[in-house]
Amino acid sequence: MVIVSTTGYILTVLGPYLSDFHNNDASILKTIMLTNVDDILRWVGENGIVVVDRGFRDSVGVLEALGLNVAMPSFLNGRRQFDTLEANETRFITKIRWVVESVNDRLKHSKYFNQTIQNSTIPTLQEYLHIVCALINRFRPPMIIPSLANDEVAHLMKPLLNDENFLKQRLDENRYSWTGVDASKMMSFPKLTIEQIRSITLG
């Protein structure tokens, strides 16, 4: 298991673990936290925020009992879609969590781990992984470089967390219908600058 910071810096590597029913992501994380592997509780810190995916859902209770805040995407639980707040919160978490997936991608595309690994290397596999992670930390650029632009995006996003989904409201009220629409009478699509496109897609 690889634990990374929000900038993509690899903080620690734990394992390898057997892949079976007893060693899913949640049970591995619970064991790590409860046994304080690598003194993790000291450097995570009280009230720290742990960002995880839905595969860690069974570890949430343990993490919260240890005084940590857990950020995890919501579950639909049989619904067709999230309510507005859940959807926005999930977007916020995804905005941070992509870093974890990018680090995993870097590991999988290293020359050694981008191939079939023989079982005979299992005793030294952790050492190899530590070496690859150290090389990534030293020679690869961080996923996110602190900048004023990042701060501006965060300041723009935060007030929008509790905003209502006005488009959904209008659709629910049946205020729009595409039946019998004359495309020639519709207004032309606005031309957007690169800054506007970046703001819409990334902001």
Automatic annotation (TrEMBL):
Pfam families referenced in this protein's UniProt entry, alphabetically: DDE_Tnp_4
Domain of life where this protein originates: Eukaryota
Keywords per UniProt: Metal-binding
Domain DDE Tnp4: 2-137
MF annotations from Gene Ontology: metal ion binding
Protein name in UniProt: DDE Tnp4 domain-containing protein
Obligatory cofactor(s): a divalent metal cation
